[in-house]
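Database export, one record per block. Field names are fixed; values are copied verbatim from the stored entry.
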Amino acid sequence: MQNQLITYLRAGHPGLVIITHEEVRGEAEISSAVRSCERRLLVWSSSDGWVDAQENRSHPCPDPLDALQWLEGQFTANDPRKVAVMRDLQLHLDQSDPLLVRRLKDLLRMAKTQGHCLILLGCRSKLPDELSHEFTTLDLPLPGADQLRVVLDGILSSAGLPASAPDELGEILSSAQGLTTTEAENAFALSVVEAGKPIPLIIAREKARTLKSGGLVEAVDAKVTLEQIGGLDLLKQWLVTRSRAFSREAQGYGLPVPKGLLIVGIPGTGKSLTAKATAAAFGIPLLRLDMGRVFGGIVGQSESNLRSVIRTAEAISPCVLWIDEIEKGFSGGHGGGTNDGGTSSRVFGSFLSWMQEKEKPVFVVATANDVSKLPPEFLRKGRFDELFFVDLPSRTERSAIWDIVIRKYARSIVRFDCVTLSRATDQYTGAEIEAVFVEALHHAFEEGRDVTEKDVFAAIGDIIPMATLMDGEIGRLRHWAKGRAREAASKVSPTRRTRRIQDN
């Protein structure tokens, strides 16, 4: 960020907006850049007024209009050139004061001719249309390993603890990736209090809590393995082949970093489970993105939220970014987004550009049930490494699912005939098979005994599979996937093959 600021200052940019939740770190970066350019730094806030950082003199003026009027007097002379930082001015712009907007535009024109610069510092960019093209927006990236190490060394020094061993240091810093310096400092300190030293597990726990409270991305504990997914052998084989793609050996070999995977299919067939298992197979963290929370009602908030998500994912990288039912979040991007002022289209375009150009190892796993709602440009090669279609499980896959479900609920597999149960649950999804077994467990528990195969067959008779209710939708989805997506499973039961012929 410091080098970028120096470049903009030397290029004569009159107005910059720096978006960050780390005000102290942001001001430190600005201060270093100002010293490198031999400028004079002025800082304003509604509580302190203007403060001359070099001469440590202050001028009280809590009102932003008075503050801008005072700054005009400082900008009349270009020797020395000045950099003025205004904290949280965006909050005052919420009131849509035309006089404030006009004075800002006049001040920027003066700054341009005299070689000064005005920097707005805050946690979000919210400018009226009259100013949106007057400022250049910069995002302060989350701290890297070097900056986190400085914070860690400070905590260890204050606690009187020795420096972490080299083999432990990497794990500690990796567990804190994606946190701000303040959040990392709190996590390090908490770990020292709880365990007497920084523990990666405690730090990762605090990071998960912090990300969850943010509401946009959530750190998910990926305990699901590929062995816990019944069927989908081709999809699992594809993931195993790329399980080492994020290693240093792969980079040295010249392998490109995998971009991601789009899984399209019928609800309940294991798409979300596969997303969780992907992170476990790759041995990297899993982040879950709720696209619905990205879109905000305030102008510019949606775009700012997406930038925040990208910054977090890239800071934690390598990681898996899981977007469930992505068509619900991006369906507005198809057709111009006229119903929301173009917000969906802008967010969609920004996400596509990031998917195409990202260099950080962030593997995106997106799932979709209704692919017809996805814009065509989202599906073309270059966005994702591969597109897989997950159909209803075949007889062999259903037998494997029954085996997994029975073992999951700690019941002896020898008491159940998985082959017979597989035949009885033709056209059932994996989620419906598990629902059947849970229903049988409830019935047996009510009668005070263990579950039997008879209970399972009774529950099968009580559940109508979704394939029966959505026969037309499933047929259209299969027709679309033919020739457009790879099959996730290699074995196709005779029943499924007959249905495909009928659908076509």
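Remark 1: The longest strand covers residues 362-368.
Remark 2: Residues 7 and 33 are 9 Å apart (CA to CA).
End of record.
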